[in-house]
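From the shared-data thread, chain only:
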Amino acid sequence: MAPIPVPPNPPSWPFPTFNIRIHDLDHEGVDAFLDSVNPKAVLRTAVQASYQWLYTTDSEAPKVQELTLILRSMPGVAHATGSTTHKEIHFSLDYIKNVSKDRLKEEIQGVLVHEAVHCYQYNARGTCPGGLVEGIADFVRLRAGYAPPHWKRQGEGKEWDAGYDTTAFFLDWIERRYGFSTVLELNACLRDADYHRRLFKQLTGRPVRKLWSFYCAHLKELPEGSVGVTVQTASGDVEAEDEDTVNVEKPDEEEDDDDDYDLIEKERDVVNGGQRPQRALILKE
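Structure, as tokens:
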């Protein structure tokens, strides 16, 4: 099967103004960071990945005008914050200092891709499950080619919305089975409406719990030792698995394990101020 196509890179995508702020020039992590990457280049690559894997035109994406990278000593790894137009990514110098030199460049880029997605993705007006928000960010990191080697596909014993790499690989599998740009469409659905689990059925024909059960069955069929990171390359190309590696049944209209949820009438295009039509899920009250 041919590789999944890499999204185009339109020159019209608007990049924000990039800034960097360093809190302690004497910190060992500062030299490690600056010796490994060009700050503007890695920030631009991170924003570009968000555009490539979550949007088709700049009219759909949030209008971020300024993105500031803040390098400082702090617990954890990184986080994103800020207003709609002015975003900040806080990156731990303590974490940077402790990453092995042979992995540092790719790890810095991967973390920044993840955090840049948080600056650009939609979250259903704050109602989207945190695990799905984090999973979409790691999905973009995976597709962009910056997944770390310790990531593993995990199924049974986990929930689909466990977040991070667990959900990222699940979303990757959904997109392979139900169509390129499915995650892009999922992100679009999270723009103007509150989150509803049924949007997965709207996009794929299957409830999310059924999708997860198929995915878990797929993982069991993989050869032993093949559940690590194998789908991304540094260029962003993603090799597709053979169609016969998993047996996914056709959607059955009578099957529905989400009967306890409100019905979705239909999906329709809503014109947003004359911009490109935006997909939205219309829920019954």
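The first strand starts at residue 17 and ends at 22.
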